[in-house]
Design goal:
The complex is a heterodimer of chains A (379) and B (65). By secondary structure, chain A is α/β, with parallel strands linked by helices. In chain A, 40% of the residues lie in helices and 26% in strands. Chain A has a five-stranded mixed barrel with strand order 3-4-5-7-6. Chain A has a five-stranded parallel sheet with strand order 9-8-10-11-12, with helices on both faces.
Chain lengths: 379, 65
């Protein structure tokens, strides 16, 4: 290890840039060799250069780390790396002294393997579950004004979803965003598409759709940023990602999941034909109900009419009966009935004779009987 | 006559007339008057019902096509 010499200015020790860099570089060499995980970006390889350069990027917060690896060593790995691929880099920190650039000197490089992916996915799933990201399930709208669709730019897959939605509900209006659904750029591009459609005017629900694919193909659908974006969406999200065994995390964060485009369509729009049928039945009930009301009114009216027709005659009859009754009583009080039974009224000089002492022999009296009167003399 | 009474008002008045006639406390001179008013109200109500029924059947026919 070279000695780093300082220049002495009085009691101040001062280092030249070169000796400072050399000192830091020496110190860095004491750090251990470690594995670092990240995404490959800005890969620069030139046949005339000794080293291959790339930047390792943290997928979660975008932190960057420059990496160099010997060109011969890199070529021997035959990795065919493309931008965005996730790798494990084995190396140690290093300072490029002439420029003061800090970087990771790679000794080896491994593409992120299936087992790594599975383990990472499982950790991420536990972490997000602990945050409660998979718990909120919002109800889907019965009839969305517009439906946002985030789908691959593969025509067949896109048409499949659109066709099943419009077959079920022909008047459905869609806002479609085509994105990469596979490869290193997929997650970022899907997030952008999801934000765009979920914030588009009148969009009440979003379908995130992709036909089936291999485990690696579907990895972007488990990307932490995408899963968080789904959970943060202002409208409910339906995840329609065809998969066989391992559920992509987007399925867990979505408000509803569908295994096929047809199932997704069933979730986001009502069946127009069934709806129409129900409406027709209800309308038939409307006419029936109105007729019932009318019939009841009519019946009540007719009853009142029948009673009205009868009432005046009844009233007259009742009055006549009352009159007859009074007449009967009147008749009962008059003397005629008594006379008819054989009694007679005796008068002497127009005075009614009520006592035998009121007359003497020889008196002229008038006798009134039922059908007339006659004169008589008291004996 | 003033503005036409509603169906419900006319029906109520008709039923009140019937009850009054049946109770028998109407004066003799009033009898024909009440009866004529009752008949008038009945015709009014019946005509209103017919109009509404016609309108309902018309609507039902339109919605069936």
């Amino acid at each position: 290890v070279a000695r780093v010499e300082a220049i002495q200015y009085g009691d101040r020790k001062v280092y030249s840039v070169a000796s400072f860099n050399q000192g830091v570089a020496d110190w860095l060499q004491r750090l251990p060799t470690v594995w670092v995980e990240g995404e490959v970006t800005e890969l620069r390889r030139n046949a005339r250069w000794q080293s291959v350069f790339f930047t390792l990027k943290d997928p979660n917060d975008g932190a960057c780390l420059g990496v160099t690896i010997g060109r011969a060593r890199f070529d021997a790995l035959r990795l065919d790396l493309v931008d965005g691929e996730r790798v494990h880099v084995f190396g140690r920190p290093e300072l490029f002294e002439s420029r003061g650039d800090f970087r990771l000197r790679a000794l080896s490089l491994e593409r992120f393997g299936l087992g790594d992916h599975l383990a990472a996915l499982d950790r991420l799933k536990k972490k997000l579950a602990a945050e409660g990201l998979f718990e909120r399930k919002r109800p889907l709208p019965f009839l969305p004004r517009r439906i946002g669709l985030v789908t691959g730019n593969d025509a067949a897959a896109k048409q499949d979803v659109i066709a099943t939605i419009t077959a079920r509900f022909p008047a459905a209006r869609l806002v479609v965003a085509e994105t990469y659904v596979q490869g290193p750029l997929a997650a970022a591009s899907m997030i952008e598409a999801l934000r765009a459609v979920s914030n588009a005017p009148e969009v009440d629900v979003v379908v995130l759709s992709r036909g089936g694919g291999s485990f690696e193909d579907l990895l972007p659908f488990s990307d932490e940023r995408l899963v968080r974006a789904i959970a943060a969406s202002p409208v409910p999200v339906v995840s329609a990602v065809g998969h066989e065994q391992d559920t992509p995390l987007c399925d867990l964060a979505a408000d509803a999941r569908a295994s096929t485009p047809t199932a997704a369509a069933r979730l986001v729009v009502p069946d127009a034909a069934a709806l129409r049928e129900r409406l027709d039945r209800t309308r038939a009930g409307l006419a029936r109900g109105a007729r019932n009301v009318l019939d009841r009114r009519r019946e009540r009216l007719e009853q009142a009419h029948v009673r009205l027709r009868r009432a005046p005659a009844l009233a007259v009859e009742r009055k006549r009966a009352r009159l007859e009754h009074a007449a009967g009583r009147l008749r009962a009080l008059s003397p005629r009935a008594t006379l008819e039974r054989g009694y007679a009224i005796v008068r002497k000089r127009d005075e009614i004779v009520r006592s035998a002492s009121g007359v003497t022999a020889g008196d002229e009296i008038g006798v009134q009987v039922a059908d007339g009167q006659f004169e008589a003399r008291v004996e | 006559m003033n503005a036409q009474p509603t169906f419900e008002d006319a029906q109520r008045e008709l039923e009140q007339i019937v009850e009054r006639l049946e109770r028998g406390d109407a004066g003799v001179e009033e009898l024909t008057q009440l009866w004529e008013r009752g008949e008038e109200l009945y015709r009014l109500c019946a005509a209103k019902l017919e109009t509404v029924r016609g309108r309902i059947e018309e609507l039902a026919k339109v919605s069936d096509t």
